[in-house]
């Protein structure tokens, strides 16, 4: 009986699996031409100061307008880009474009660019960053690179030396999605980060969540003593922002302030968030 059930289950899933593989293949071949066809775009989401109002950074987030499927989220195509190796070209494009955009902004706000684990391991990374800065003329201290814990796990010493080389260019380094991996805070703080971004899963536990609060409090206190800024990701409500302010977080990012926006919408966003009566100052 068990065997028959198993076979029935297998047969039930088979077409779905097939369909999934077909979708993945279609996605990958579409991704190969996405750059040339100018289907990729960067949107920007603000990081907002908690104790002092205003936009402290703009994070660049990739968007793919697929001709048939519409907007494909990065959670779907970044993994596909990593597996196929296309992330090297797409990542270089994102970095170059973000630097060029930021260099043209009328505000001296830094831009943050995400690096996937494979990009972080790429031996050409430091040169690519140096080139993007040189070609755009963007001041290095206005570029922030976001790296997740999963990129650091593989080799301690190699990670440390890449981060030091990047730091040596004068760019700022942020640890992204903090708390989603299994590393201890103590381990992560041996790396030369300027900023820690607490993953939105912790913020989602606020305003009540005792564990979330304990984690955030610990990160803030470590950050304070080491001179590392702390950002809370995924802030959606005024109640969450109030708790984060009490806990001493430096910056907040989330739909409460703005979702990621196309470059053309940034001027009105900056205007809105710099007003003293804005959500950022609430
Ligand atoms: P991330 O770097 O942690 O970016 C934050 C993600 O959270 C973004 O999703 C953003 O739209 C979303 N978000 C912001 N505020 C809120 C909120 O209040 N609530 C909720 N529920 N979500 C919020 P997005 O744009 O879909 O990007 C997902 C991930 O894809 C990013 O996570 C990043 O790891 C990766 N990614 C995006 N752009 C790039 C890129 O240019 N290069 C690389 N390597 N990865 C990228
Ligand atoms: Mg990020
Ligand atoms: Mg993040
Ligand atoms: Mg995240």
TrEMBL record:
Record's protein name = EAL domain-containing protein
- The scientific name of the source species is Teichococcus oryzae
Q: Which residues form a coiled coil?
A: none
- List, for all copies, the residue spans of the domain called EAL: 24-274
Shown residues within the full chain: 679 to 960 of 960
Q: What is the lineage of its organism?
A: Bacteria, Pseudomonadati, Pseudomonadota, Alphaproteobacteria, Acetobacterales
